[in-house]
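Same chain as my last thread, 160 residues:
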Amino acid sequence: MSGAIPIPRHERAWVQWADARDAARARRIAAFVTVVGVAILSLARYLTPFDAGFGTHTQLGLPPCMTARFTGYPCPTCGMTTAFSHTLRGHFWTSLRVQPAGFVLSIATILATLAAISTLATGKVWRINWQRLRPEHVACAGVALILGAWVYKIIVMRTG
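reply #2:
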């Protein structure tokens, strides 16, 4: 026997479902996250995704991507709105193909919105176990996701 102290099961999880320390504050934050999440997801569902894989945001009166316009290469966020729009239509493969980071962020937005709604309903919160899931690792994974999706997008736009 190694003498190691076993880690309780609930401390091994990356995310934990727990009672809020301050239920009123948790519900206020959850209400804000719900409103923002529903607004983003509703807007993405409202927009028609462009077949080119980017440019959907121009339906909102925003200008086309200047990086793509002047350099011929997409910016790191080219295709994000299009990917969100495809995800909200259930076109998951198309969303992933158009902009992998946009697909991941759209799924994360859906999950965060659902978690916030559950907090509003129950007063319980989803807590991230920062002992298990280190913030610097999350940040590095996010940067790697964006950069990897950008490289992918450059290759696809130049060859496709």
